[in-house]
Amino acid sequence: MIHTLSVEPVSQDLMEEIGFTWHTDPDGSSYVAPELVKVTEAEAEGYYEAANALYDMFAEAGQHVIDNDLFAELGIPENLIQLVKLSWDDDDWHLYGRFDFAGGLNGEPIKLLEFNADTPTSLFETCIIQWALLKSNGMDEEAQFNNAYEMIADNFKRLITNDDGLEKFDEYYNGERILFSSARDLPEDEQTTRLLQRIAVDAGFSTDFCYIDEAGFLPDEGVFNKDQDLTNFWFKLWPWEDMAADEPELIELLTETARKRKAVFINPAYTILFQSKGILKVLHDLFPDSPYLLAAGYEPLEGVKHVSKPLFGREGANVSIVTESGDVESSTDGPYGIHPMLYQEYVELEQDAKGLTYQAGVFFAYEACGLGFRRGPKILNDTATFVPHIISE
Questions:
Q1: Measured between alpha carbons, how far is 312 from 308 in angstroms, rounded to an integer?
Q2: What is the pLDDT of residue 4?
Q3: Contacts of 113 (CB under 8 A, 6+ apart)
Q4: Tell me: the pLDDT tens digits for 266-320?
Q5: For residues 89 and 109, what is the distance between their CA atoms, to the nearest angstrom?
Q6: E strands of 238-311, at which residues?
Q7: Which DSSP letter does residue 140 get?
Q8: Of 251, 393, 381, 254, nearest to 309 (Cα)?
Q9: Per-residue pLDDT for 17 more than 90?
Q10: Nearest in space to 300 (alpha carbons), one of 313, 286, 272, 281
Q11: In this predicted model, what pLDDT tens digit does every residue of 33-68 receive, in sequence order?
């Protein structure tokens, strides 16, 4: 059972001041719990090791998908395949992602649920808010597994240095620009994007921001902002699968832009391989003995309690828990039922005394770098609460 330590919440005024405007849920409750999950050094190290090992597996699985033309099995839109291959062959840098885990505390084994590799949320909560909770309560600010801000800053530098060493950034950097874009009227997306812009500035980049509808694209020139200033890198908080479905002509433009190396896109298009839940079957096929992986398939798992979830979906929508006999134990609605389903062996999430479940999220930027928890009903959905943590023995 999970036990938490109650603390004083970060003031809403402070959260508003730093741009964290989605601090209160529609029912008036706080989105960030004024509590801390107690994590030991060994447990934090366990999450760190799991995420690092799994990322290497994902890289091998991605190559396997490309070599064996398994794009359809993963639900990758056909019009995106060429851009995926270009970004993979060009070794475009993966800025950040977030692994979702069951277990890891109280002796429970860590099991991978999925990897949010393209457009992960909860970055602001993990980087800033849970650290501020320790600081505002006069606690040790270092007592967290949480160096995501610094690691993402270093990963921005690797856009220029690659593997030559971070100390080469000042020597190699030649004024390259990053344009950051998010959709209008989505405060969480915008503030997360602006946080990443702030991190890039701290890393030493020249940056700009514009909404996605203000950005322009010409394959012979590249990507430009509303003032028609060209950029070298374009960060967009816009899922690749949605872009492929909603803006096929834009995908054609971006493919030509990438082919001519007029701009580089962050996160790269190949992250859709990792984002697709279909990669979970590929992983289990390639690494059947991994202690981190659950059985997964493209058909229901007969005689095994399992979860069905769309290849592309978010926040627990369109998920069902199915018993060994094939009965639906619980399910959620949502907009992602148009996608094919992935069937994954069921694993219990750890619970507290109130019966609420906890899921660990571990950010990855070159290596594992930030832990946070989501808490809610049996199928975690968009009502889930973010719960910070503290490392203590």
A1: 12
A2: 94
A3: 100, 101, 102, 294, 344, 347, 359
A4: 999 999 999 999 999 999 999 999 999 999 999 999 999 999 999 998 888 899 9
A5: 35
A6: 264-266, 296-297, 306-310
A7: -
A8: 381
A9: no
A10: 281
A11: 999 999 999 999 999 999 999 999 999 999 999 999
Instruction: Report the DSSP beta bridge partners of residue 328.
Output: 322
| Token pair of 389 as six digits | 């943590």
Q: Which residues contact 142 (CB under 8 A, 6 or more apart)?
A: none
Assess whether pLDDT exceeds 80 at residue 131: yes
Buried b or exposed e, range 235-267, using 16+ CB within 10 angstroms = bbbbbbbebbeebeeebeebbbbbeeebbbbbb
Q: What is the DSSP string of 52-112?
A: HHHHHHHHHHHHHHHHTT-TTTTT--GGGHHHHHHHHHTT-----EEEEEE--STTPPPEE
In the predicted model, is pLDDT for residue 120 greater than 90? no
Neighbours of 69 (CB within 10 A): 9
Q: Where are the alpha helices (DSSP H) in 128-220?
A: 130-136, 148-161, 169-172, 187-203
Q: Do 173 and 166 contact (CB within 8 A), yes or no?
A: no
